[in-house]
Amino acid sequence: MSGHFAHSSPGATDATLLPGRSVALVHEWFGATGGSENVFRRIADLVPHAERFVLWKDRDADEPGLRESWLSRTPLTRSKALALPLMPLVWRTLTRERFDVVISSSHAFAHTVRLGAPSDTRHLSYVHSPARYIWSPAFDGRGANPLLVPPRRALQAVDVRLSQHVHSYAANSREVQARIHRYWRRDAVVVNPPVDVAYFSAAPRADREQPRDYLLGIGRWIPYKNFDLAIAIADRMGVPLVLAGSGPEEAALRRAAERVRVPVTFEVRPDRARLRQLYWGARALLFPVHEDFGIIPVEAQACGTPVVGLRRGGLLETVVDGETGFLVDSTDPSAYAPFAQRIGELVPERAITHAASFSEQEFASRLSAWVRDATA
Q1: Which of 33, 35, 261, 279 is the S-S candidate for 303 at Cβ 3.0 to 4.6 Å?
Q2: Which parts of the sequence belong to the Glycosyl transferase family domain (predicted)?
Q3: Domain assignment of residue 293, given as a range
Q4: Residue 274 burial (CB < 10 Å; 0-12/13-18/19+)?
Q5: Strands (E), 137-263
Q6: CA angle 53–90–172, rounded 5-degree value
Q7: Nearest 5 degrees, angle CA 298-CA 169-CA 296?
Q8: Are 146 and 115 in the same domain?
């Protein structure tokens, strides 16, 4: 949810990337909100002369200038699970145009697109994750769709075979870098996604001077985000909880909130300014979930708010254990309880400084270095 509210420009780089070369930027389906969409926009800022292709654009996505595939004219846009087996074909029949450089933003099959022979076209792929639907369905309940069970192994083989032409990969995290190596047997550089840390750090004085008197959970209310666990943790810690977001689990979470001793407040679809207020008023962000990277914990730290979460995935990169938060090896709520008292030991300024290393300027610099190196 967070990282999806507004899109400010990244810091200036030395010059526009790939001047004088024809460039295609390719993304999966384009939704109204999402971290991968924000990455795609930031890449487009660095290559403003590029053509931009997507499978389709959701009806509520306000993004001009996108060229949609023929899949956008079919009912399959309403079911990603049904559309998934067709995606490799769609990427191979996207356009007859050819480009000097292709940069794909991939979390399914966008990296399989071919817009020129490998001898003539440099293909770079920024990977949010190898398709969870087919490679690691345990991470994402959508991959458990019965329609995907029979073709999953075939799709894995297709995924590997149709991506041999990619010249260079960048991964959004060390977690995804390891997955690329494990599934595709390819190396990747790590370029963490951009976070607008400047906005969250530069809150009005009234926001910054709030008492920090509650725990905070932010994100989409879906099962794998573990907000039911966050409610149980807050109960064990004996600290009120605010849950900000929206999603299909709302009713179940409200029922769970009624069964605990601490107050649980729901903030449904807060705007960006309200979200910043919530970060600054929180004693800590609860994040007991395995994410590939996780923009929300970085935003929290940009507000001086420590993170208490699971010692897995992206938090191993974004949180300095014992300095900007605490990492826990368990999903047992009682394992988190001791940190209720230790949160006060942490220095907010340390978290703010650490969050700056994930800024939009850092992303622009690291992505530019990757592109220049891979296309030299």
Answers
A1: 279
A2: 211-337
A3: 197-358
A4: middle
A5: 168-171, 189-190, 214-220, 241-246
A6: 55
A7: 15
A8: yes
Please indicate, yes or no, whether residues 169 and 223 belong to a single structural domain of this protein.
no
Q: Indicate the pLDDT class of residue 85, thresholds 50, 70 and 90.
A: confident
Number of domains into which the chain is organized: 2
Give pLDDT tens digits for 20-71: 999 999 999 898 667 889 999 999 999 999 999 999 998 878 888 999 999 9
Question: What band does 99 get if pLDDT is binned at 50, 70 and 90?
Answer: very high
DSSP letter string over 313-369? Answer: TTHHHH--BTTTEEEES---GGGTTTHHHHGGGS-HHHHHHHHGGGBHHHHHHHHHH
Q: Please tell me whether residues 341 and 364 are part of one structural domain.
A: no
pLDDT tens for 225-256 read 999 999 999 999 999 999 999 999 999 999 99
DSSP 147: G
Do residue 249 and residue 346 come from a single domain?
A: yes
143, 210: one domain = no
Calpha distance 304→318 (Å, rounded) = 13
- Does the pTM of the predicted model rise above 0.90? no
Query: Within 10 Å of residue 321's Cβ, how many Cβ atoms?
Result: 13
φ, ψ for residue 225, nearest 5 deg: -75, -10
Does the structure show a pLDDT above 90 at 121? yes
Instruction: Round to whole Å and give the CA distance between 31 and 44.
Output: 16
Do residues 270 and 242 share a domain?
Answer: yes
Say what the pLDDT of residue 300 is: 98
Q: Residue 54 belongs to what H/E stretch?
A: strand 51-54
Q: Report yes or no on 16 lying in a domain.
A: no
Neighbours of 112 (CB within 10 A): 26
Q: Is residue 27 part of a domain?
A: yes
